[in-house]
């Protein structure tokens, strides 16, 4: 498997080991050895096991934030960006965060690579909703609405709080002025769907 094969992947935001196997013309041992050699030389970068990107693609990618968000969606499917990461984008969470947070109906898990730390939190299937789509290189990035990002953030933390008193909510240091009337109505929809007493208390104490 020659290095020229990689030219076909230089415009792709990522590719799999399976994609490379389509061009395999030697043994499995040589195939894996070629990949390790390319990784060592920096010609390709490992995103996670079996998923790669060429160095040339990374050098040409000008929208690094969107690229990381796309990769976050790619690592766990289906998933959507939410929680701390999205709240910071909306200036609702005022403290600095570490990593990119997403929500999935699959199990909780983390990935870390040269781009970032990617954290995935499990949520019940009936609460796996409330995202919008962003275009990226003929692909779609799923990202929570402002209201759903706040809901997910609070819902996933609810067991650490007594009942979301005014004092407990203040300790979260949320800039809730960014939540407009329409956002609060949408938030109430998710809280009603959750049927969770603590979530009802949270909503009552922020309105």
Brief overview:
The chain is of the alpha+beta class.
Text of the CATH class of the largest domain: Alpha Beta
- Assign a percent range to the helix content: 40-55%
Number of distinct helices: 9
Strand order of the largest sheet: 4-5-7-6
Account of the protein in words:
It is elongated, with a radius of gyration of 21 Å. The protein has a four-stranded mixed sheet with strand order 4-5-7-6, sandwiched between helices. A three-stranded antiparallel sheet has the order 1-3-2. Strands 8-9 form a two-stranded antiparallel ribbon. It is α+β, with helices and mostly antiparallel strands and 207 residues long. It has two domains: 58 residues, Arc Repressor Mutant, subunit A; 143 residues, Beta Polymerase, domain 2 (2-Layer Sandwich), CATH 3.30.460. The mean pLDDT is 94. Helix 5 runs antiparallel to helix 6 and helix 6 crosses helix 8. 42% of the residues lie in helices and 20% in strands. The relative contact order is 0.11.
Task: Please render the helix and strand layout as text.
Blueprint: E1 15-16, H1 17-21, H2 28-41, E2 44-48, E3 51-54, H3 55-60, H4 64-75, E4 79-81, H5 83-89, E5 100-104, E6 109-112, E7 117-122, E8 131-136, E9 139-144, H6 146-157, H7 166-171, H8 181-194, H9 197-206
Helix pairs in contact: 5-6, 6-8
